[in-house]
Amino acid sequence: MVATVYAIAGFGYKYSMSELATHNGANKAAAQPQHPLAAALGPRSLVLVGMMGAGKSSVGRRLAARLGVPFVDADAEIEKAAGMTITEIFAAHGEAYFRAGETRVIARLLEGGPQVLATGGGAFMNADTRGAIRAKGISIWLRATLEVLSRRIKRRGDRPLLKGSDPLDTLRRLLEERDPVYAEADLTVESRDVPHETIVDEILVGLRPRLAPEGAAS
């Protein structure tokens, strides 16, 4: 019998139905909700949004561990689906192709809550993605200043949108464009040069009135 397969995100990556069930089951088995706030999430996801360099992956992993739920990085899932790095996708197919695939990947990932989901810097700019996150998750904007972001990003060379002659000017322009949209997130927490656990603590404090009005220990 030939297994039924379907493409994930239009990037040519395929799971058989049995493989997908195994993959999703293993992901959920890896971390079972333990924290009262995680139990209050139900099937929803906590979705971290914000600029590249804001710390979504680093903070997200620690937040997921604290809550006892899986952590998922949307960019890593896109690369897995495409069999290419994001830089390679941009170079081979362009930003529009990448954004279309990103939208589909995030829509799929939102079916897998409860979880902490870190998204790429441009993901929340898509109206369909924002709508999907509102329907199936709680969005958390890790807001960072230009100075903080530029200091972090200059250590890395894997940011396709910053490949031009003046990456600082590009970063400034992106902040001006994106910050008003990021501000639509359900919760805003300042990303700055403090221990990641401090940011996690602040996220949990902000989540309590949304998930457990009577309060819950962190």
Descriptive notes:
This protein is an alpha/beta fold. The protein has a single domain (5-211), classed as 3-Layer(aba) Sandwich (Rossmann fold), CATH 3.40.50.300. It has ten helices and seven strands. The chain has helices spanning 17-30, 36-41, 56-67, 74-82, 86-93, 95-109, 127-136, 146-153, 167-182, 196-211, and strands at 5-8, 13-16, 45-49, 71-73, 115-118, 137-143, 187-190. The strands form two sheets. It has a five-stranded parallel sheet with strand order 4-5-3-6-7. A two-stranded antiparallel sheet has the order 1-2. Strand 1 (5-8) and strand 2 form a beta hairpin. Helix 3 (56-67) crosses helix 10, helix 4 (74-82) crosses helix 6 (95-109) and helix 5 (86-93) crosses helix 6 (95-109). The chain is globular and about 45 Å long. Residues 1-9, 12-31 and 214-218 have low confidence and may be disordered.
